[in-house]
UniProtKB/TrEMBL annotation:
InterPro entries, alphabetized: Glutamic_endopeptidase (IPR053168), Neprosin (IPR004314), Neprosin_propep (IPR025521)
Protein name per UniProt: Neprosin PEP catalytic domain-containing protein
PROSITE patterns: NEPROSIN_PEP_CD
Domain Neprosin PEP catalytic: 111-342
C-alpha cells in the first residue's frame, strides 16, 4: 500500500538533471533547470516567459487554519533544490505501465462513468456567474486500497466532453506501490517552488481517533490568466492560460471524494474509510471550503446554490454542516468503506 500523494500533472522527456534526491518512498526527485522543465514540451509554451509569483486580486484572502489539525509534510524536507532549478519526480518505466491501468476520468464528469463513485459538493451552474478559484483544507488519510484508487479532491471545470477544461488537486491513494501520477500525458504545469512538487508522497497522515493532519489547497486564476496551485499558501506553480481553450472562468467548482474500482471489482474505501458523522476525529473532512467568483468575491456553498452528488449511498456519504464558525468555515465530512457498490 502506498501513502497518499498530491495529484500530479506532467509528462516525461529527456532533460539534464542538475541534482537529484533519493526519497524514503523509493523514488527519485530531480532538480531540473527551471527553464528546461517538462512543461515546455507543450507546443504552446515554446516561448513562454516564466512567472515567478502570482498577482492575485486584492479581494482574495488566506484560508483560516485549525490549531487542532497539523499540516502534512510534503516535498523535499531537508534541502530545497538549488537556485534556478525546480523539483520534478522522476518517472520510471514501471510508472508508465501502471499509469496505463489508472482511470483517465479523475477529471470531473458530466455523466456517470462505470466503476467510479462520487461523494461531492458541487456549485450549481448559473448563467452569467463564473468562478476563478476554489480552495479548502482536507485532512489526509491513508485508506487501505488493495485495488483501484481513492481520491480526495477539489476542482474547477468548464465545458463537457471534447470541450472540457478542468483542473483538479488533492490527494490520492492507489493499490500499487510506486504509482503517483495520473495525468502524465498532459504537459503544461510550470513548477516554480523549490521544495513542494506535484506527485510527492505525503509523509504524515491522520489516524482515526488519533492525530489529525491536513493540507490546505487552492486553485486560483490570477490577473494574467494563469491558474495557480497552492499548498498551505506555498505557490507550487501554475497552468498557463495559453494551454486552455476558452477557460477565462469556470462554470462550476466542487469538493469531495472519488473511488475508482477495477471492472467487476470491489470499490476501495474513500476518505478515512468510515461513514461521515459529527466526529471529525475519525472521519475525513473538508473544511474552510470557498469559491472565488468572477468578481473576486469569496464565499461558500449556501442553501440552494449547490448540489450534493452521492451515487452510491450504500458505500459512501456526505455530511454537510454548512458554516460552523470563523475557523472551520463551510465544512463537510465525506467517505465510506466501499465494497460492492455496483457499476
Amino acid at each position: 500500500m502506498s501513502l497518499p500523494k498530491l495529484l500530479e500533472s506532467f509528462h516525461f522527456s529527456h532533460v539534464t538533471f542538475e541534482k537529484d534526491y533519493g526519497t524514503k518512498f523509493g523514488y527519485i526527485v530531480d532538480c531540473i533547470d527551471i527553464n528546461k522543465q517538462l512543461a515546455f514540451d507543450h507546443p504552446l509554451l515554446k516561448d513562454h516567459k516564466i512567472q515567478e509569483r502570482p498577482h492575485f486580486s486584492k479581494k482574495t484572502t488566506k484560508n483560516a487554519r485549525l490549531s487542532r489539525n497539523r499540516s502534512s509534510m510534503i516535498g523535499l524536507q531537508q534541502d530545497a533544490c538549488p537556485s534556478g532549478t525546480v523539483p520534478i519526480r522522476r518517472t520510471t518505466k514501471a510508472d508508465l505501465i501502471a499509469i496505463r491501468s489508472m482511470s483517465n476520468n479523475i477529471y470531473p464528469q458530466t455523466t456517470k462513468v462505470p466503476n467510479e463513485h462520487n461523494a461531492v459538493i458541487k456549485m450549481r451552474t448559473v448563467e452569467n456567474h463564473g468562478y476563478i478559484g476554489v480552495k479548502g483544507s482536507i485532512n489526509v488519510y491513508n485508506p487501505v486500497v488493495k485495488e483501484g484508487s481513492s481520491y480526495a479532491r477539489m476542482y474547477i471545470m468548464k465545458g463537457a466532453d471534447e470541450n472540457l477544461n478542468s483542473i483538479t488537486t488533492g490527494w490520492m491513494t492507489d493499490g500499487a506501490q510506486k504509482t503517483g501520477c495520473f495525468n502524465i500525458r498532459c504537459p503544461g504545469f510550470v513548477q516554480v517552488d523549490k521544495r513542494v512538487y506535484l506527485g510527492s508522497a505525503i509523509s504524515n497522515v491522520s489516524i482515526p481517533n488519533g492525530p489529525q493532519f491536513e493540507i490546505g489547497l487552492s486553485i486560483s486564476k490570477e490577473e494574467d490568466g494563469n491558474w495557480w496551485v497552492t499548498k498551505d499558501e506555498i505557490n507550487i506553480g501554475y497552468f498557463p492560460a495559453a494551454i486552455f481553450n476558452n477557460f477565462i472562468e469556470a462554470e462550476t467548482v466542487g469538493w469531495g471524494g472519488l473511488a475508482v474500482s477495477l471492472p467487476n471489482g470491489i470499490s476501495p474505501p474513500m476518505g478515512s474509510g468510515i461513514f461521515p458523522d459529527d466526529n471529525y476525529s475519525h472521519t475525513s473532512q473538508f473544511r474552510v471550503i470557498q469559491y472565488i467568483d468572477s468578481s473576486g468575491v469569496q464565499d461558500g456553498p449556501h442553501e440552494n446554490t449547490y448540489d450534493t452528488i452521492i451515487d452510491s449511498p450504500n458505500c459512501y456519504l456526505i455530511d454537510f454542516h454548512g458554516y460552523i464558525g470563523e475557523h472551520e468555515g463551510y465544512t463537510f465530512g465525506f467517505g465510506g468503506p466501499g465494497g460492492d457498490c455496483g457499476i
